[in-house]
Amino acid sequence: MRTALALVALLLPVGLAAQAPAQRGADGLVHTITMPMFGANVAADAVPMQQNVITMRGDSAIVMNGTTRTGFVTKVGTLPLRNNSFLFTECFTRRARALGDSVDIPGWLLNGGLTQTVSVRPLA
Question: Are 33 and 80 in contact (CB under 8 A)?
């Protein structure tokens, strides 16, 4: 699902299913991601096994898992990045278009907590 300020995708890693709603700002940055994790082969209305809420704020990524809060240092303007997810790829594409197409955007790896540079270039 896609709206002006929200994207929702269904991610299907091996053995688990996860929905990843991302709330974007008008600036093209992702501000909040909610990632409920479900067991394999569960009903569509099943309760998640766990849920992470990731908030990107300034130079920080804040992860809430239940009542546990973990903060990670990153860079201002960082977008979340998870494997080859089309949801996050679209976020990078939209941000690049807002900044002028050929840009380097910091990406915060959801599966490791590290920040790496993602170079976004138009196809020739």
Answer: yes
Q: Report the alpha-carbon distance of residue 85 to residue 60 in Å, rounded.
A: 22
Q: Is the pLDDT of residue 117 over 80?
A: yes
Give the type of residue at 59. Answer: D
Alpha carbon distance 88, 95 (integer Å): 11
CA-based Rg of the chain, rounded to a whole angstrom? 15
Q: Which residues contact 94 (CB under 8 A, 6 or more apart)?
A: 24, 28
Instruction: Return the bridge partners of 92, or none.
Output: none
Residue type, 101: D
Q: Which pLDDT score is estimated for 14?
A: 47
CA neighbours closer than 13 Å in the CB half-sphere of residue 56: 26
Structure confidence by residue, pLDDT tens digits, 1-38: 556 655 555 555 544 445 556 677 767 788 888 887 77
Query: Is the pLDDT confidence value at 104 over 50?
Result: yes
